[in-house]
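Q: Hi! Curious about what Hypoxanthine phosphoribosyltransferase looks like structurally. Here's the sequence.
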Amino acid sequence: MNQDIERVLLSEEEIAAKVKEIGAKISEDYAGRDPIIISVLKGSFMFMADLVRAITIPCTVDFMSVSSYGSGTSSSGEVKIVKDFDNSIENRHVIIVEDILDSGRTLSYLMKTLKARGAASIALCTFLDKPERRVVPVEVAYSGFRVPDSFIVGYGLDYDQQYRNLPYVGVLKPSVYGE
Ligand code: 5GP
Ligand code: MG
Ligand code: MG
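A: Let's find out. The predicted structure is below.
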């Protein structure tokens, strides 16, 4: 295990099983609807890669990037679209794929913006959720795991751009970010 990780929350095996389950559910729910699956970079890239391989129906894959966190561990409340996705979502069924839902500010803002672009439907799929941290209410269609209110890294999630490559999800030692 990486020396900066206090404890492993989710093993590779647990993650793989859950991602398969969500992929199967989405395939069932969206059969015949060619959904656009949009990954919110960078945190969701690994979840996205595994998820779309678990989806067995035709779908469109796209990416966008928003900034809400700097290099710290708490939300600034400001959300900016840094890279927009390429496809038109007019009259399309959209699934937004996020790494972790925390205060809800990022996804709440995104939902508002994307609804204005005329999608037929928009659903949220988050790998992790910290429900007790919610500041803005957000409706989640697909959620992988509830996690405690600790700073979490791995499987795409970073601290200061590090640890994204860990194949498991773990709690970062507070000493790493100076607490
Ligand atoms: P929200 O807008 O819901 O407060 O923040 C969501 C974003 O904050 C996530 O997409 C993620 O980038 C970041 N975030 C929130 N909690 C954590 C965490 O425990 N670990 C990491 N690495 N990022 C987090
Ligand atoms: Mg994110
Ligand atoms: Mg980050």
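A: A fun detail: The pocket of guanosine-5'-monophosphate (ligand 1) is lined by residues 43, 68-69, 75, 98-106, 151-153, 157-159 (CB under 6 Å).
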